[in-house]
Design a protein that fits this description.
Length: about 130
Amino acid sequence: VQLQAFGAGLVQPGGFLRLSCAASGFTLDRYAIGWFRQAPGKEREGVSCVSNSDGSTYYTTSVKGRFTISRDNVKNTVYLQMNSLKPEDTAVYYCAADRRESVILGTYYSGSYYYTVDYWGQGTLVTVSS
């Protein structure tokens, strides 16, 4: 049972990248999913998340209109499409899954349940630079 994040890369400002969060051993559509990132010298922050109850999506202000979170239940994968990338998007990106939507949202908004999240994927590095 594991969660894996894919899609690391170096991209120029204004470019795009798609991150994937794939699960093995469990079904992602039963889980709330969050994407988080941690830039050098900074704390981990919530980027986006998707509900497992009604499909609601959430985006931090700095990525609204540029990033899109989506599910592919056939592939048991959640994606984070990142467009119009900026140097300040440079970070290690992590995905997280928990059957309790409140845990993902609490972690997304305040990091409250960081250590109780069911699954964390390993980080994947996104570098935005010319």
